[in-house]
C-alpha cells in the first residue's frame, strides 16, 4: 500500500471523528480545517518531492554503488546532446538520457547516436506539457506508450524507465507507470543547471558520491562545460 493511501485512510478516520465531535457540539466546525490543511500539505510535499516515495516507488539512487549515475533530461537536442556525448566518450562514462518523445521524432539521428554510443534512453513523456500533472491516467499512459513505441522504432531498444516531467508525482502518474510495468527514476542530486549560475551548479554536483544519480539537462548551453569540469575533477 502506498504512503498516499495509508495517509488518506488515517486522515479519513481523523476527519470523520472530528466531524462527528463537531456535530455533537464538542467544538466548532471551524477546527476541521486543521486536519484538512495538514492532509493537503502531505499531498503537496508528496507531489513535489520525487524521492518521497509518497505516491509510488521511485529509484533515486543507482543500483551500482560503485559509480555516480549521470542523467540528462529533456533532449535529444541537435547540438547540445552531441557535445555531451563527445565529453562522455572522452571520459569513458555511460549515462542515462530521459528523452521527450516529440524531440526524438524531431532528432532521430541524435537519439540513435545516444544508443549507439552505449548509453541508455529513458522515457520523459511525449509532450512534457505544463499540464502533465493534471492528465488523467489514460492520457499519461498514452503519452508513455507512444514514447516507448518511438524509442523502440527509432533506436531498436526497449524502454522500461520513466522520469516524470518536473519531477512531480501523483496518483494518476503512479497508476499509469504501474499499468505499464515501468520503473520511475528520480535523482539524489539536482544540478539545477536550468538556473544558469555555473559556480553554484559546480559546487552542488561536486558533492556527488558513488551511488548518487545526478540530474542535468542536455538542452542547456552551460551543461557541457559544467559536465566536462566535473568529469575532469573526478578523474584527477
Ligand atoms: Zn524535464
Describe the structure.
With 236 residues, the chain is of the alpha/beta class. The chain has 2 domains: 3-48; 58-235, TIM Barrel (Alpha-Beta Barrel). The chain has helices spanning 3-23, 33-48, 80-90, 101-106, 108-116, 137-155, 171-179, 198-205, 223-235; strands at 58-59, 69-73, 95-99, 120-123, 161-162, 183-185, 189-190, 213-217. The strands form 2 sheets. Strands 4-3-2-8-7 form a 5-stranded parallel sheet. The longest helix is centred in the N-terminal third of the chain and has 21 residues, at 3-23. It is elongated and about 70 Å long. The model has no long low-confidence stretch (mean pLDDT 94). Zinc ion binds at residues 73-74, 124, 128, 165.
Described by its quaternary structure, the protein is single chain
Structural class comes to: alpha/beta
Report the total helices: 9
The low-confidence runs, each spanning 5 or more residues with pLDDT under 50, are: none
Strand content: 5-15%
The major β-sheet equals: 5 strands, parallel
Output the helix-strand order: HHEEHEHHEHEHEEHEH
How much helicity do the residues have? 40-55%
Give a short summary of the structure.
Helix content is 47%, strand content 12%. The protein is α/β, with parallel strands linked by helices and 236 residues long. The chain has 2 domains: 3-48; 58-235, TIM Barrel, CATH 3.20.20.370.
Amino acid at each position: 500500500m502506498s504512503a498516499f493511501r495509508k495517509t488518506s485512510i488515517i486522515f479519513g478516520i481523523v476527519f470523520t471523528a472530528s466531524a462527528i465531535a463537531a456535530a455533537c457540539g464538542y467544538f466548532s466546525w471551524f477546527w476541521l480545517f486543521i486536519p484538512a490543511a495538514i492532509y493537503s500539505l502531505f499531498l503537496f510535499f508528496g507531489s513535489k518531492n520525487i524521492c518521497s516515495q509518497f505516491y509510488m516507488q521511485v529509484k533515486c539512487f543507482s543500483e551500482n554503488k560503485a559509480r555516480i549515475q549521470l542523467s540528462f533530461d529533456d533532449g535529444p537536442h541537435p547540438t547540445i546532446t552531441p557535445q555531451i556525448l563527445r565529453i562522455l566518450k572522452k571520459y569513458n562514462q555511460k549515462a542515462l538520457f530521459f528523452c521527450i518523445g516529440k524531440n526524438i521524432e524531431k532528432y532521430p539521428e541524435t537519439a540513435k547516436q545516444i544508443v549507439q554510443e552505449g548509453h541508455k534512453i529513458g522515457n520523459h513523456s511525449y509532450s512534457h506539457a505544463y499540464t502533465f500533472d493534471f492528465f488523467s491516467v489514460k492520457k499519461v499512459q498514452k503519452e508513455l506508450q507512444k514514447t516507448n513505441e518511438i524509442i523502440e522504432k527509432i533506436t531498436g531498444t526497449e524502454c522500461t524507465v520513466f522520469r516524470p516531467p518536473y519531477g512531480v508525482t501523483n496518483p494518476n502518474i503512479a497508476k499509469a507507470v504501474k499499468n505499464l510495468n515501468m520503473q520511475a527514476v528520480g535523482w539524489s542530486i539536482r544540478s539545477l543547471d536550468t538556473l544558469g549560475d555555473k559556480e553554484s551548479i559546480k559546487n552542488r554536483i561536486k558533492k556527488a558520491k558513488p551511488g548518487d544519480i545526478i540530474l542535468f539537462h542536455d538542452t542547456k548551453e552551460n551543461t557541457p562545460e559544467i559536465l566536462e569540469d566535473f568529469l575532469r575533477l573526478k578523474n584527477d
